[in-house]
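Quick start: what a row looks like.
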Amino acid sequence: MSFEVRLSGHPEAVAAHVVPQLVADLVASGVTAADPTLWGAAAEAEARVRLGWVDAVMASRPLVAEIAALREQFLARGVTRFVLAGMGGSSLAPEVIAASFDVPLTVLDSTAPGEVLAALDGDGSDGGLTRTALIVSSKSGSTLETDSARRAFEAQFRDLGIDPAERIVVVTDPDSPLAQWATSVGCRVFTADPNVGGRYSALTAFGLVPAGLAGADVGALLDEAEATMLTVAVDAPDNPALVLAAALAGTPADGAPRKDKIALVSDGTAPAGLADWIEQLMAESTGKEGTGLLPVVLLPVSPEIDDATDDLQIVRFVNDVDDTGMFDDTWSEILVSGSLGGHFLTWEYAIAIAGRLLGIDPFDQPDVEAAKAATRRLLEARPIEAPPAFVEEGIEVRVSEPDLAAAGTVRGVLDELWTRLGPDGYVSLQAYVDRDALPQLAGLRELVAADAARPTTFGWGPRFLHSTGQYHKGGPATGVFLQIRERTEVDLEIPGRTFTFGELIAAQAAGDAAVLADHGRPVVTLTLTDPQADILGLFEAAD
């Protein structure tokens, strides 16, 4: 299946204006040739060491046989369960690949103690750790969440008399701290091209090894991407990557503002998790220097669809862009269809080119480190948490600005938070909870979007810190932020650390809130002291 794009209305007009110049400037072939000058002098040094992904399809071919052989070795030893410890680009791509090929892969990209324990225990019918292999995936090799999960699994393996070297597989950059550790203990190591950034690594070892060990046909995935290579690599007006980039990030001929909120909507045919992968690629690549494209993952019936704001551009994933039953020329939408491999490669090209149109470096992430540094400071200092502004029916309320809590009710606090939304604003809903125990919390997004009447994003913490977290600090200062936290007696020590998983996720939430407040972003934190009981009150307040 080739990758196809169909436009109507506003995006069609923008692309008609912008694509000819992209073709004339030889942008597509420049990306293919790994030309680091495409994004300007300020970005050249970073781009020079971040364009290895354009060769990933060919470079990754030898991995297919290596992954298959290792999987067979595991299966022969009775290892049938595969857990991935990774964050951001190291978890989102393998997650969508595994879902697309309908193979079981447990993805641990949280520090919530309950989720870590569930990953350690399995579902009770699969033999748990006795039949488990852990894939530890980190480009830098020092990601705190991933390192903490690795420590927990290593200790549990040893307690069961299992040699961790026989059960832990590492994917990382050459010579990283993780690579050095793995080599020292004898783990199997897959090293990836260091000239590929994490969010562009779907078709490298970071995407292929975890999904392939779980049983996905990663050779077929590379075939799909290869079938798309020629169409995105050439300077032609029908190049889908050029068309998509122009429609998303181009400036209209009349100079009107671009639609910078990008609604990602599936008709049910797109691979599960694809929108989440695109969310990270788009937000972390473009949200900087006060500009960017904000991805908003929606259901087909979300409030933003029925009453789209002027700054919202709908991108709809469909099975066939030429299905007239799905498309009306009076609409103003972007329709896309294609194989998963085609999606990966085309979106990588498109977002890189969008960075050129926005005038930013799409390969750096200058504001991601701020939340990490704040977390480290909190873990070292262990300050006493400030008392809540008030407590209502078990929900503790904390605010970044005293006026936000003046009403003295959760409902009033939310109403006040929405008043901080300008005509181009958005709501970021962030849930630092055990999502296995509280999956229904994701439904709060629909209520908040309807109540605030503005585009609303939802992210599980700390997962989103490695995706939209960059946009929140580096993008336009138009967001308001609603954190949901939980108090729970469930906790787990991190071997070799002075803090627990519970203390880690609390520090990550508090650290991010502090950084957002320092950037002048309004933040409300609602802590559920009895999560299962308090969640109903939270939904009622937001309705």
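That is the whole record. The chain has three domains: 4-44+235-358, 60-221, 368-542. The mean pLDDT is 94.
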